[in-house]
Amino acid sequence: MSKVLSIENLHVAIDGKEILKGVDLTLRQGEVHALMGPNGSGKSTLSYALMGHPNYEVTEGSATLDGIDLLGLEPDERAKAGLFLAFQYPTSIPGVTVANFLRHAVTNVRNPERKEGHELIPMREFRKELRQEMDELGMDPEFARRYLNEGFSGGEKKRAEVLQLALLKPAFAILDETDSGLDIDAVRVVSEGVNRVAARAGMGVLVITHYQRILTYIKPQFVHILLGGKVVESGGSELVDALEREGYDWVRAKYPDAAKDEEELEQRTASGQLTF
Q1: Domain span at residue 126?
Q2: φ and ψ of 10, to 5 deg
Q3: Please, what sign has the CA dihedral across residues 95, 97, 100, 101?
Q4: Is residue 275 part of a domain?
Q5: Which of 30, 157, 185, 222 has the fewest CB atoms lying closer than 10 Å?
Q6: What is the DSSP letter of 120?
Q7: Taking Cα atoms as reference points, which of 31, 41, 23 lies closest to residue 2?
Q8: Per residue in 110-123, pLDDT tens?
Q9: CATH, residue 85
Q10: Burial group, residue 124, by CB count within 10 angstroms (0-12, 13-18, 19+)
């Protein structure tokens, strides 16, 4: 049976200000969901809260992965449980090569009981697997010897995230605005990598974006619109088409209370009262 990621009535606050106001989502392995919404609607807040960022306080609700309470776990334990987050802005780690980082990450995810200082996955075994995945993603072998994200272009950073995804093989992958900062060719290349990895591993994917273009390549079966901290619409690809044609004005008109919450949040952010 496929695993289920279940989010129920999730409320999340930053600096004491509530951002998410009761989010409900259910994802199953093998499904592709898109979460769309204007800037400041709470999309990235959801991804960080699910992954356990300490600045994001869950005040109500639940999030479970196949019955496991994610909210009671540390971020590394959530990763070991099968959750993966591809960051909108991946962090550079000078002095740590891509290969070394991935070898440690893969070892810890596959051997959750491992303690620091214990044996890593054998180098020969890891190198073979790494080379195979990089070949499939069309990546230069020299890439593995570079320091993680240091001096990387936007496209290289996102391809490094896809390489992590390929090796870690999570049950669920959250892609937080993976298309941000990429030109159309890079979006296509990264999307093709995600599609290949997700299909092979049978993982569930949640694509967070406010643009239609990445969904041209990563095609969702389910689309959700987030506004003012709540999922106000759910449907299929017709929602993507509607947003492409009309923007978010029709959503704001249909859900005036959520639009009011969105406007208040934008004002607080612009005034510096709230930072993400």
Answers
A1: 4-270
A2: -80, 120
A3: positive
A4: no
A5: 185
A6: P
A7: 31
A8: 988 887 778 899 99
A9: 3.40.50.300
A10: exposed
